[in-house]
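Each field is set out underneath.
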Amino acid sequence: MKRVSRSYVIATVFASLAAVSGASAQRMTPSPFDFGAYFGASLPMGAFKDQADVGFHGGAFGTFPLSDVLGIRIDGAYSDFGTKDFAVDNATASSKTTILHGTIDLQYKLGTENEMALGGGALPYISGGVGAYRFSFDDSCAGTGCSAVAFGPASETHWGLNGGAGAMFPLSGFTPFIDVHYHTIFPKSGEAGRANMLLLSFGLKFR
């Protein structure tokens, strides 16, 4: 039988340990940071419909994966609801409403992206969290009745919650997705009513 040298055995052991260590490190390496952008329709809901018309929005996000299915998603977006006209006594008033909003959500995928790529189907997800909403108003008025009401630019910040769902679709190099999110924005102390809106989005996610 061919004799195996001691140095060869030691080298083999060290090579095996290095391979195991490398495999463990590869498994422990976190998933890449995801980012993307989206646009779509902004729909005022409830009492907010009396103050704003259907508008549009655009935004960007980044996702920090915690596991194959769970991640923290940070969004920054801008919604423009255009200008809405109101009839007041002996006057016509117009109000333009925009919202700059940022949210932090937990996002849970109902499956993994590897399964999505192999199966060639959609990967649904759900998400929800908290956000800050910076309202900007630019009101104007024409007519003799304008003196009874204060008009002009104004802005205010509110906190809110959001929740929704979406689906991702596999393509080479990037991932298109559709998303529906409902936002409820709380009034400040002493104020009445919430501002609610529904965002319908189409976007692209890159890695």
The domain at 30-206 is CATH 2.40.160.20 (Porin). The chain is about 15% helix and 60% strand. The first helix runs from residue 6 to 28. The first strand starts at residue 34 and ends at 45.
